[in-house]
Amino acid sequence: MSTPPLRRGDRGTAVEAVRERLVATGDLRATDSDDPSADLFDADVERAVRSFQQRRGMLVDGVVGKHTYRALDGTRWMLGDRILVHTPGHLVTGDDVAALQERLLGLGLRCGLVDGVFGPLTDDALRELQRGVGLQPDGLVGPQTLRALGRLTRSVGGGAPHVLREVDRVRSAGPSLAGRVVVVDPGHGEHDEGAVAHGLDEASIVLDLARRVEGRLVAGGVQVVLTRGLHGDPDTGERADLANAVGADLVLSLHVEHLPDAPQAHGVATFFYGAADRSGAWSAVGERFASLVQREIVARTDLLDCRTHPRTWELLRRTVMPAIRLDVGHLSHQGDARRLADPAFRDTLAEAIVVAVQRTYLEEHDDAATGTLRVADVLARSGLS
Fold first, then answer.
1. Which strands, in side-by-side order, build the sheet including 323-330?
2. How is residue 4 annotated by DSSP?
3. Residue 338 pLDDT grade (very low, low, confident, very high; cuts 50, 70, 90)
4. Which of 184, 230, 306, 361 is the most exposed place for a label (fewest CB within 10 A)?
5. pLDDT digits (tens, 9 = 90+) for 345-355
6. What is the full DSSP assignment across 150-199?
């Protein structure tokens, strides 16, 4: 995206285009074309952007950056407005793709979560549909396929089909962690330190925490894949692609929050894939995993509980398996920074995370109260103690 971020106070043709999209989405009241504020990014536009971001599970900052641009642009399309096809390397995105995915899921076809991206899973599900109704399985969403979709009715009942599949996949896998693949993603990298404050940098903290988590999971028979080591800093898309390529069972992305303009802010928060305004755009197992990590950390430390939240951030959206992001404290807060600097505290965090991974795979009758399991218990369940 070559257009620079737009924020309050900016004006020009790009702002006019953003205003038009926000009017179309119902987030902004329309104004006359000759209104002097028609190309101004004013307080009303900022509120409208925040409203749109909130509904779409995005970072709510009132700034139109590349992700908000892409989401706004995607609202231009309704299913049937254009021909859709899977194009590797240039994936089609938009609300029409999301609508197609919702229809495919409702028909019991496996296209992953509703993410508005025409990827290989959506392509496979579409071709399966076309074969099932006697059409050429060419992967094109054209007039014939749209007519077929219009004639078909929902075939999955008793709950959201993607949720049923996710939960069943976890249940059928059993409680042992041995043999599972977990991708641990320490945010940032060699050329991107992330947040820097109180003599600490985010990239080093989360890499150290990732290695502590890795050691404990490996002892439990888990294959751990780190998205970066001591060198290199792949972008978010490359990290998601790696998780998909290795067939991970779970993805854990580690970060530290940093709000220098609000140094009093502190605490821990977790995030999972979810968009409240889209059917099928929700990871039930991701939500459970995020909630368990949040609860275990809060029970074992004195970090403030900043709760669990749905988001549509790229790593959460592009991974086909449950993925969460953990913001483990605020580096801009003196108390949180002091805790994060302590290796013993990072050991406590690692234990909490590993226990949460184990609890994600436990049935209700086998589960334990929050804060009571230890890594030794996890090893015993995997037969490795």
1. 223-226, 181-186, 250-257, 323-330, 268-273, 305-311
2. P
3. very high
4. 230
5. 999 999 999 99
6. HH------SS-HHHHHHHHHHHHH-S--TT-EEEEEESSBTTB---EETT
Coil vs helix vs strand at 293: helix
DSSP state of 320: S
> What are 189's strand-pairing partners?
192
| Cα–Cα distance list, 181 to 18, 224, 357 (Å) | 42, 6, 11
The per-residue pLDDT for 383 is: 62
The number of beta carbons lying within 10 Å of the beta carbon of residue 29 is 9
Alpha helices in the chain (DSSP H): 13-24, 43-55, 66-74, 95-106, 120-132, 143-151, 161-173, 202-219, 236-245, 284-300, 314-318, 334-340, 343-360, 375-381
Residue with tokens 């001591």: 230
| pLDDT tens track for 261-291 | 888 999 999 999 988 766 678 888 999 999 9
Mean pLDDT of 192-198: 90
Question: In this predicted structure, which of 225-229, 241-245, 366-370 has the lowest mean pLDDT?
Answer: 366-370
- Show the tokens assigned to 24: 């179309």
Residue in this structure with the two tokens 């995607």, named with its chain if needed: 74
Q: Is 287 helix (H, G, I), strand (E, B) or coil?
A: helix
pTM score, whole prediction: 0.78
